[in-house]
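re: ur question from earlier - yeah i can do the single chain one, its not a big deal. heres the input i used so u can compare w yours
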Amino acid sequence: MIDKNLSQEGFAKIIGVNQTTISQWLLGKKKPSYDNIVSICKNFNISPNELFGFEEK
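and the output i got, formated as tokens:
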């Protein structure tokens, strides 16, 4: 979100969830589903390893 200068609402629209869901992820109250992770990776052209910080871009 920071790299792309996106708000929670903007990020949520791109991946197809609501802003409350993003807020809950960021607060650690919920975790993204497999489908959400796939959507994030596809929409931002990154690997799951990049998403979770296991490899550099």
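The chain has four helices and no strands. not sure if urs matches, ping me
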